[in-house]
Design brief:
The chain has strands at residues 2-7, 10-13, 18-26, 28-39, 46-51, 57-59, 67-72, 77-82, 91-103, 106-114, 118-123. It is mainly β.
Length: 124
Amino acid sequence: QVQLVESGGGLVQAGGSLRLSCAASGNIFSINLMSWYRQAPGKQRELVTTISSDGSTNYADSVKGRFTISRDNAKNTVYLEMNSLKPEDTAVYYCHSIVRIVRFGNTGPEYSYWGQGTQVTVSS
């Protein structure tokens, strides 16, 4: 099995910064796409940003220029640097990864995994 553990959420004033981390552990052969989603109260979960295994990134328009995603493949960890935070960024942030697992000592299939979520609250 694979686990994703997030950290770094909290309360910050508008204009402030936070850095989220998400570490994957378990029966991992390789990690393909790593992403951050968020879900605000009463709203659907939305994609914030993605980073592929080769480092290519994509961002939602609402966070472009303010958020930066990065990854450390040696640590199986993805980061989300959030600057110039706004009250509308308040949400539970979830990391998501597409992981190829090890099976019988060889490469196995890919599966989708989610972290437990971390709360980010931006006060005005």
